[in-house]
Amino acid sequence: MNISGKMKPNMEQAWEEELGRETMRSMEMSKSASFKEEKQDIERTATSSAEQSKSVLALRIIVYITLVLSIAGIIAGMLSLVGKGKQEAFEEEIERISDDAMLILGSFIHSISSQLSDLSTTLTAQYVSNTNDAGGDAIAPGFPGITLPFFDQRVQVHPEADVVFYTPILSSDVTSKREWEDYASQKQGWIDEDLQNRGWTPINTEIPYFIHQYTGEDLDFNSFQNVAAPIWQFSPPPKDRSIINMDALTYPYTIQIIEESLAKKGTNEPLLSESFDSEMLLQDTEFMNSTTPRTLLSMAVLKTFSTNDSTETPEVVGQMFALMSWEKALGEAFEGVNIDLQLDVQESCGLGFSFILHGGNIAPLPTSASAFALSDTQVVRTLDHLESCQYTFTIRPTGGSEVHSAPAALPTAAAIIACCIALFLMVVFHLHNRLSKAREAKLFASAQSSAAMVSSLFPSAVQSRLMAEVEGKKQDNRRLILERSGSMNFQAAKELVDSKPIADFFPEATIMFADICGFTAWSSMREPSQVFTLLESLYHSFDQIARRRKVFKVETIGDCYVAVVGLPEPCKGHAVVMSRFANDCLIKMKKVVKALEVSLGPDTADLGLRVGLHSGPVTAGVLRGDKARFQLFGDTVNTCSRIETTGKQDKIHISKETANILLTAGKDHWIEQREDKVTAKGKGELTTFWLTITKDKKDASASAAMSASLHTLLSMSSRSAGDEVSEKHNRLVDWITNELAVLLRVVEMTRMTSRSVTKTNELAVASLERASLDTTMKSTPLNEIKEIIDIPPFDPSFRELPGLGDFNLSLDVLIELRDFVNHIAMMYRENPFHNFEHASHVSMSVVKLLTRIVTHSNTEQDIEELHHQTYGIASDPLTQFTMVLSALVHDVDHPGVSNAQLVKEKTSLAQLYNNKSIAEQNSVDKTWILLMEGDYQNLRNAIYKTEAEFIRFRSVLVNTVMATDIMDKELAAARKARWEKAFNPELDEDPVTASNRKATIVLEHLIQASDVAHTMQHWHIYRRWNERLYNEMYKAFENKRGDSNPTDGWYKGEIGFYDFYIIPLAKKLKDCGVFGVSSDEYLIYAQQNRREWELNGKAVVESMKPNLSRTSSNNSLIEIVEKKVPSAVLSQSNCEFKTNSDRESEPLPSSFSILIIDDDKISRKLLSKALKKIAPDWRINEVESGEEALPLASSSDKKFDLIFVDEYLGNKPGALLGSDVVTKLREQGFGRLICGMSGSDAHASFKDAGADSFVFKPLPFRPDALTKELGRIIALSSTA
Known about the structure:
This protein is α+β, with helices and mostly antiparallel strands. Residues 736-966 form the PDEase domain. Keywords: Lyase, Membrane, Nucleotide-binding, Phosphoprotein, Transmembrane, Transmembrane helix.
């Protein structure tokens, strides 16, 4: 039975359905297979679409033509039915528009006249007042010597005129002219004031001293040859002051007005000039390139006010002018007019001009232009209520404007209905067209996406082979799909799909494995988004280097980056290329992690890269199947992995094979043999090498020694100033400042949008601040612990909070916040455990838990529901801010010994705090006293503005810091009782009190968990901090400040600590239901670390014993380095740093001038503020760029004794580097002290440029440390 004929239509339909299914399915298949099938789908779709498009296009054209002809017929019929009333209605409309326009134009001119009248009256009143005060006729003050204060601001109140200026009229004697020239020279300061108010920079700084003439046409002004009218006050203020003192009686368009004004003898009516090109009056204004016609409107300035009783005519002593733009005036007059018009303006005193109104926009019409056909309808109007020049307006619609008139009702309704039907049909067909094109575009985008995916996954040679394979199988795969819908069996399809794999053997290649050291432990403390931010930043940087170096990135496996050189295109220097690439990645890694530490938190900059290189033969190709990729195989790959895992952080470990290739290439100075052999699985012992890329063989050894010595010297330079904070320390300060600033921004935004915020009472808040300081002196924080802290109720306006990008804290608040954090950091002692780094770690844990509080629930959950679920913590940014602040300060000034030891020693602190929670109470008091200083007024105003906010801030701070004392049994028992009471289901109290009770105890447990967060994080994190705590306690024992050797009970003590404190605490975090998955994470890590400690804890304790040397102070470390660095090497390095380190600081001079060049506003303001503290009489100037600094430093009236210049001065194209600024300053002859600054090592750049010294940013802001540092920098001048 022949079924092929019957099956054919069904097969075609099945093929189309299968095509759609195959297209959707191919997007989810493996990369290489996806590419093949999507390519086939594109070809099939193109074939079918081409056939369908022909008929669709023909039908579409017919429909469009029919609809267009129908609409044209409807419009023609509508026009034929419209009666004569159309033209009459149109003419009446033009009449109405013209009348309205003349009223608006008259009002516009009247507004300018009123402004001139007000200014003239003000000048007359000022003269009269000055004369009365002087007791008679005054020559100065008085006319002409009068300057109107805030002239530009007065003019800007009514900005209708483009320019407004005032000219006094001087008498005929030469003496009055000379007096005026002296007066104008002395009183020209009004220009600078007006320019400053506008934020403009002057082109020149002095006005012309003598009254000068307009240098245009040579006109005969004999009647005024002995009278002068110098232009004086001018708005907008002139950047180029040459127009000041120009005699208006020599300017063609002002003389006619002044002549007429003087002829009228005291009448104060507005005068209008002819229209003219006002380029001279518009220079240095926003209208300077405008050629539109303008005219001058003027009002006389009288010497006295005229009265009805007076028979004397007031003398004209000046003239006030306003330059009016006809384009602006007519634009307002005809605003909203939709009819196209031509406006012809005739003037009695000039040639006239024309404007065209088209599409609601008005523009001048050149005299030669005649592009618009004009209607027979016209309206003539005259502006006749002004003196001097008369203006007549002829208003004519352009051709075709009549269509705007309303036709008869019946044909209009019929036409509208017909048009709507036709338009509806057109829209339907248009939508059909759009959908068809969208489908085609989707298919094309899918093809492009597939091609881009293939390009990113496979080398170019492999891509071309994949394309060729797809082309060769196009017809077979089409037949396969067709037959799948018929009788094709699976075996036949398999035979068609099967093909030869794409794989090759490459005899010479070099592979790199690069792993991020410490990544696993680091990521255990971070949010997933932070982990991916790090990886994306690093891998993106590596990818950019790979493209530049022609290196092929194979893949990334977690935190491991794999790359290869030598395939698929052979490369003779593959080992050299890969060595340079690895070195670039190592350098880039250090820069990226340092930059990211400010946003990703502590320990980010400690991450390093461990790199392994190996050379040899490689098999490479496309391993097909699900999620296929280009892969490498062979012993070379396995060996490279072993080389990487046996390497060290921040070093490039290479195999003997790679080293031999580098030796052959003449790069023996890059290679240093590793002292110990490494054991690799399946390879036994291997001889390996370290790779260090240097410029040439001669510099290889010297470079290594110089690098180490310079690093030491630079470290000594920064510490010698008394600023113990390291570069890492500064990054931690910046990170904490950033986290607190973000929360503080939310606090401010919440206040702005809240509907229930109490009005600020500054006096009441100030009273509470004073009372809190009195309490600090008379009582103890322990007495302030509250069982219930009032958390604000839910505010519906919290749903309307704008994004953080819409709001910024003031610069003063940011400066004070960073200064406060820096001071807190400096108050920490150099303990192995209770130090600023640990406080940063605790702060990071608090931030992580708070983030989970706010975001752990479903994103669609209502904010009010989240508020109640988290007991109000999620919607109170002030409490969140205080929690992070508490984590930062909770161990301030910790002595490094236990509270029990302080009690035993009977220290003054123990007596002060009644032998209870000594370290914790001391931290609270010292933090509070610092915050209440006058230097932090703006910061306090940002934290709290009401009494309720102050009380909540203080209460949360005290409760949470005191909660970190977990050794006091009474406090622990009270806390346990409060937890049981808060979460007792049988407790009967009102919901608000119950919620606040739970919030209070949850906050205390949050900071407790953060304080010991290292025990509930990755094993390596726990080991590091556990060892530091051990070292601190052992140090106390060695110093006779401990009862027993901590080694004896450390192993069992940790097990008990986990069993009775850590694991129960983690379970409480889980039970309260506030912290989301973080509570599960903390509990899991706590249980894992407990098991690990039980297995390996004894060995760990033994390994910690000899490591006590790690706790040595920074000073001893410097001494060790100084002993190890040969003096010969030191002499080769920057001598100024050695001088700066060794020289005793000199006393600071009483008078000194400093210029700070830094684009970072906060750093600049902090340094300036610190300098003012130690030397109030010094002159401090600040600029943000080298371009600003160079002219300032070279000016005669700005002599600087010392210039601080940052290396990186912004990201603007062409911006000068700090070292470039130093070079230019020296070229200009600047011979005083220059000190370079940078957050990174830029000493060499500054030295080469001619700087005298270099310091790391930020400089020490403590007065004693900064004084010492400045003394040492100034001391260099004696040896310069």
